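Hey, I'm writing a tutorial for new members on how sequence and structure tokens pair up, and I'd like a real worked example in the thread rather than a made-up one. If someone can provide the structure for the chain below, I'll link this post from the tutorial.
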Amino acid sequence: MTISTSKCPHCQKSGFEAVTEEPKGSNFKIIFIRCQLCKTVVGTLEYYNSGSLIHKLAKKLNINLDY
């Protein structure tokens, strides 16, 4: 079995970090997944976890989301 490590497409290093930023002209934050060395962005995540927020709201409204 071969185990592969994710590598940056730009510099080929394998360390990554999650950084929260608010893009210029934007009204919301984004989490950027980027290389620790060269800062190339390899992905993004929502700042808020929508699924978690929906479940919290449903709980407050006494709505059962589990079927």
